[in-house]
Amino acid sequence: MKSLVILDIQNDFLPEGSLEVPDGDLVVPVNNRLQEHFDLVVATQDWHPQNHVSFASNHPDERPFSKIDLHGIDQVLRPDHYIQGTSGAIFHPAL
Residue 81 CB: number of other CB atoms within 10 A? Predict the structure, then answer.
């Protein structure tokens, strides 16, 4: 059995998303074309709660992409993204 795993093609990683990947939406038609060549297609969808520890908004006086020490480990703070129940967490509509 041939399987295709599509990872996190969600709105927040696509153009105009909170963690935009430039031209990230170009992978959508490629993934759509590939699907017909596989017996099983699985798409993953990542979600976070609003109070996720990696969000800069949950650390007073911190900005996205700054680093903090989190229990002895460097943590890069991110913009809020993939919050469950929001449009940023859903799959690209053309996928």
Answer: 23
